[in-house]
Each structure stands twice: as structure tokens, then as C-alpha cells.
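Thread: Modeling a multi-component assembly for a lab meeting

Hi all, long-time lurker, first post. My supervisor asked me to bring a structural picture of a complex we are working on to next week's group meeting, and I have zero experience with this. I have the sequence lines for every component (621 residues in total). Could someone generate the structure of the whole assembly? Inputs are pasted exactly as I received them:
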Amino acid sequence: MFRSIIAAVLLAATVQTADAQDANGAIAIQLSGLQPQGQVMVQLFNNEAGYSGGQAVGATMARVNGATAQVRFAGLAPGQYAVRLFHDVNGDGEMNTNPFGIPTEPYAFSNNAQGQFGPASWADAAFTVQAGETTQRINLGGN
Amino acid sequence: MSASRRKFLAAFAAAGAMAAAPSAFATTSPWSLGVENAPAGGFPDAPMRRIHGRAPAGLEGSLYRNGPGWFRYGGSSTGHWFDGDGFIQRFAIADGQARHRGRFADTNKRRIEMERQSIVMPGFGTRGVNQAPVANSDSMNAANTSVIVVGNELWALWEGGSPTQLSRDTLETAGIRTLRSDLAHMPFTAHPKVEPNGRIWNVGFFGQRGIIWRLSPNGEVEDAQTIDIGQPSYVHDWAVTERHLIIPLQPWLHERMTAPMVEGFVWRGDQPFRVLVIDKNDYANKRIYELPPMFYFHTGDAWEEADGTIRFDLCASRNAHFIAEEARSMIRQDIGQSPSAELVMAVLHPDGRAEVRRSGHHGEFPQTDRRRQGLSRDLVALVDDRADNALGLMNWRTGAFDSFAFGAHQMMQEHLFVPKHSGGGESESWLVGATLNARERASELHVFDAARISDGPVVSWRSRYAAPLGFHGTWSGA
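Re: Modeling a multi-component assembly
Sure thing. I ran the full set together rather than chain by chain. Output:
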């Protein structure tokens, strides 16, 4: 589900830069429980269909040098959003899975939502962005 | 002070304020004593009291056992016997004395549930709470089914995920043992098969997908390949010969994904019990045999004759009633009475025919002389943990069956072959195992002479407490 994330990161970087001046919402995502290596890859969604279909409206990444990391999305219209992310521990740009399809790298969703044997639902992961900055604290230590 | 009162105080002291007083002290059945919570802090290393006989000269080593040992926080209970937290026990025999210790595997599941003082994680027969923090199969790994010594490591095994590494001495948990990073969280059953040369074979399954593991004696992955076993049978145990891997495919099928998992299985009694036989050197070279429908948990071992006939013994039941129903209700002190499985021999002929030969003897937890894994043998030991509570020893070559029964108050558990000396025959072995004495509310350790089971144990020791029933163990010589 994260396979197109690098392309999305490149696309979203330009979108964010263009929109950042005149939009009024932002999301600060504070990550904890990380192993200090690799990078986190983060996707942002603004509706259930996009979330289920993997159509991100934003994506970003950050190097991981310690147990915590932070990424930020700015220039967002107020509304409902959800985030999904994984820790690309080996830096190969993919969320690695074992032969049965179970992720072998840590992953998480906004609200620390949990899926059972699959991604968390939109209903559990969605949160509201208003004017100003919204903070999401997500712990990957349980993976 | 009564034994139960002492036990309560000991449990409470060990667990501190975290302990929820188990609701099962009003024991109604010998079985229910075996599914009470063990003390949260385990049982510290302590001598056992010798109550009978003398330890055989030269018998030195440790019996490690594993099984579910924690089932409830107040009114919040696991939904199935198989979902209790792994409680590892070590019975150490040295200088004629026996010592016992027990400790919980410090799993992710146990940490989360101890913190919340509630059953949280889904399991085989446990639904789990909404938003349970499950990232992968090892998030809910109970490390509760068996134990194996690999090199200098002790692994607690659980069939849905990775081994959990423990200290051989203190039983302290080191953590999940990922065998290879790209194979993290893959299933690794609790019944690995160790060839006489030390090479370890194992399998793991989810639905009809499987993995075949081949490890060096020190636990390095030599090879791992995925396979399609053709049908989503419940496979708890399997067998190997010198040349083949034997995967019994019973007609209890995982037909739909639901929580708890056990409810997604269906008994298809109109379908055969298939046996998938795979060439160890070429996994594409495989063959299917068909036997009448039956349910099994455990095999003895398999071997192959000169003409290609394959034999393996197993403990067979009429259906899946125990795993689907009784192993769930026993957590609620509702103890079922389904009959013991019958020891049978499956014979797979080179021309494709297959048949089951019945022994007329009943029991479970079959054990063989592990030095003969995959090789021709005569003996299989089993315990009748239901009607007679007996240890039995079947000789397939002669048809003889030797047994000893303690009586209804003793719950027999798996007994393992321990060679008296290197190079001896199968019957030149001790059979070492534990019982749970419901009358004394205590765990016991017994040693039988495989050549004279009906004489009773040559030595017995008793703990000051009752540990939960276990599943499987391994012997490690001194």
C-alpha cells in the first residue's frame, strides 16, 4: 500500500510549497519509539475513498537519527484528514513484508489507530484539522 | 493454613498490587486446577521434595516445559486454553536432587495485558478488544506451546509466529528471535523436528500457505521456502523421515477469517484426512495420500521402509470437538468429557494406498526416542490425561503395551525419553515427565524406566505448589 510513496513524496513537496502561503491549517506529526536508522515515509489523506484507494493528497519523509522524529504538513484546508506511515528501517523505499504479506517494518496510523490484520479504518484514523496547527503524536514502539 | 490459602497468599505476594485474585480457587475439577493463573512473578528456583524412590545414577539434566499459565484478570478471561501466557518451567536433576523454577515469557502480549490488567489481544480462541495493538503476528505471540534448546539458546515456541528466546538458566526472556529479517513474524510451529545430525526442520502455516524451514544445529536459516498445501487445514504437528516431510491435512478447515480465529474453522467430516508427502530435496516433488476423516494434534514420528512404505503414528479423535469447544469452556471451569484420542499408525504404501491401523490404546502427547527422529523404531510413549491418567508405552513391533496409572487425582503430562547412556536401544531410556496432583495441589516430577513402566516411577519429587498444566517440553542433558 506504500509502493508509490516516493513518487507521491516528490509530487507533494511541490504542492506544499505552492500552497503554504495562503492556506490556514497544518499538521505536526511527532513520532516516537523509533530505532535510529532509515527514514519515515508519511502519507496524508483527506477523504475515505482516497484513504482506502491509496490516493494521498500529501506525502513527506524524514530521516530517523534518534528515537523521535517530526514531520509537518502545512497549507491544508480545514477538514478531516488521516495519516499513515511506515518506518523504512533499511532505507530501500519500500514497506517490506514477509512472504505471507505481514509487514516486517514498523507502521502506524493517525490517532495511533489499530487495524486488526490490516490497515486501520478511516473512521478510527480520521481527525479534524482547523486553522492553526494540529498535533498528532504517534508511537511506533509497539511494532 | 490450607494449601489453597497459602497459594493465594503466595500468588498475591508475587504479583503485588498488580495481581487480580484469580476466580478459580474454588476448584471444581482436577482440570481446573491446571488452568489457574500461576503467580505473576513465577516460581523462584527451589528444591522439590523427594517422595518416592531414588534418582538413577547418571541421570543429570533439565526438563524444560512450556504451557499456558495465565488466563484471567478478574472477570476478563482468555477465550481458549491455547491463549494463556507462556509459562516456562525448568525441572533440573543433579546429584540425586530435583529443583523447579517457573517464569512467564515476557511477551509483548503479556506486557500490554499486565499493564491494562485485562485480556486485550486477540488469539486463537480469544476475540481481543477493539483497537488491540496488533501490528503483526508476534504482537500477540503467547510463546506458550513448547520449548527447544538450539545451540546455547532456549526458545519458547508458538505456532503462529517467531520463537521467543530465553535464558536456559534463569528463564529470563531476551525477546523475539527473528530467524532472518525478511522472514520476521513468519509462523514456526511448536514441533520442530531435529535430525540425528542436529539439523532442524520446521514448518509454519496460515490458511493453505506454508513455509518450510531448514536450520543448522545452531539455528541459522539454511533454507526457507513457501509452499501451497492445497487446503487450509489446522496443522499443529507433522513428521519427517530421512527423505520426506509429512504434513497431515485433516478436514478441520480454516474457511473464513473471523475473530476469534477458532470460529472460522469448520469440521468437514465428509472429506478425507489427506497426507502431503514432500521430498526433502525437491519440494516440487510431492504426493497426496488419503485416509478416513479424523482429527489429530500430535504425531509420534515417521520412518520409511526399504520398499518406500512410510509409517507414522498419531493420536486420532473422531472430530474437532475438543479444540473447538472443550478447550474454550475449560477456561470457564466447564470441563468437557470427550474421550481420549486413540493411538493409531498411518501406513502410506508405495502404490498410493493408505490405511490406518488402530492400537486400541488411548492417550495424547506421544513421545519417541528423539535420537531416532525420522528413523525406524518400535516404541511410542503417551499419556492418558482423561480417563485413566496413565503413562503408556506402545511397542508397535511386538504389540505389547505397558502402562502405569497413578489414579484419578493425578493429571499425567507429557513424558520424554531420556537415554540411559549413549548408544543404547529405545527401551534403555528413562521416561521423565510431570504430573499435577490435584489431591495434594502440587506439581510432581517422575522418572520411569522405559523397560518397566508398570513398576511405577523409580523416583518422584513434589513441589510445594501446583503449576499450571503444560503442553510440551524438551530434555537437555547436563
